[in-house]
Amino acid sequence: MLILQDYVGYSQYNHVSNYSFEENVICPSPSNNPVPAPWYLPQNVPNNGCYGHACSTSPSFSVPNNSQGFQYTKTGLGYGFLDFCQTFSFEARWYFQTQLSNALEPNKCYYGEFWVSLANASRIAVNNIAMLLTDTAIWSAFPSNSSNLGYDLIPANPQIFNYGNPVIKDTLNWVKISGVYTAQGGEQYITIGNFKDDDNTTIVQVNSGLGTYDKAGYYIDDIWLIPLDSMFLQADAGADKTITAGDSTYIGSYINGINNITWYNAAGNIIATGIPGMYVQPTTSTFYVIDQTVCGQYSKDTVYVSVGAVPLVITNYELKIKVLKTTGKLYRRLMFRILIFKEAVTELSFIQPIQLMQRMKVIMNTVLQMSSL
Ligand SMILES: [Ca+2]
Q: How close is the Cα of 73 to the center of ligand 1, in Å?
């Protein structure tokens, strides 16, 4: 499975300056807490209130505890906060923008990636978490208005967002947003945010109550844009999984923009093409292979999915032994009663001791069959 640390060696090729918000840090205080340069907010708003760093003694802007909740950095000591949607304020959006270190070259492939984690103070979670690449420094077109204090929507069609554009709800882990983009040439600005209006944004309520707000605020860290010919993008079938029979699980990745993909099952049959990941529901343990070519780079990967039986739960049982005299000879007559799931009852009586083990085996086989239904 591809992880960020794989790219550390590629830092020199990253076109995003100050990609982890670790340089040019002004230790955040309540009166002065800008996102570190050369990042800025491309709106008619103060560069304020969207950065946290471990150096801060302010409860609002420290790390890992701050006004947004609790989260460690992805790397380093600092990270940004961005609201991708506010439902209390008309179409309110926050963005980070900066100039790339190099303009993009025409018809060249680039890999873009950044990481987000939903802030605990968010009452909602959204999709449309994206990276936009533009020739010029795109700026919020609207004048400041009183309903959103100038945090206006920048309408655009971003190039990098996750496959399927899922809502990101994870408050515990950092979630990767990634994709491959073939440049038109001349793109030299990068903007992170939500470029769609409320009607075209999926909004899911995830929280309520004290300390939460009607917004989708996310921590953001580690932003990458690397020419694909400076790195190797390995096919990613995802981490091996263990599931229970009847469950489905997602295999692969959410890396968008790779079209030349073929998925095979264990028998070598093609089961899907053109998608980086999918849900599978195998009934027995198996494996799947992803085979991809992206801008001339060929690779494959395998994921194993182990399927376990439904665990047998015996919630109660009774074993009764009756001793009776028959025709002068002592027999032990046994009654065995097993109660499963408080519903199914199997009852046997007058079992000869010699038969007990055999009968119990029959009962347990029946139980196992019932539990797998
Ligand atoms: Ca960082």
A: 6
Q: Regarding the domain with residue range 4-230, which homologous superfamily does it belong to in the CATH classification?
A: Galactose-binding domain-like (2.60.120.260)
Contacts 24+ apart (CB under 8 A), 70-74: 70/120, 71/117, 71/119, 71/120, 71/171, 71/219, 73/20, 73/221, 74/4, 74/20, 74/115, 74/174, 74/221, 74/222
Phi-psi region of 267 (alpha: psi -120 to 50; beta: other; left: phi over 0): alpha
Q: Read off the amino acid at residue 255.
A: I
Q: What contacts 307, CB < 8 A, 6 or more positions away?
A: 242, 243, 244, 245, 282, 283, 284, 285, 286
Nearby residues for ligand 1 (ion, Cβ within 5 Å):
20-21, 73, 76, 79, 221
Distance (Å) from CA 53 to ligand 1 centroid: 9
pLDDT in tens, 107-137: 999 999 999 999 999 999 999 999 999 999 9
Instruction: Name the least confident of 167-176, 200-209, 241-250, 306-315.
Output: 306-315
- What superfamily would CATH give domain 241-308? Immunoglobulins (2.60.40.10)
Where do the structural domains in the chain lie, given as residue ranges?
4-230, 241-308, 316-371
Average pLDDT in the 205-225 region? 95
pLDDT attached to residue 355:
57
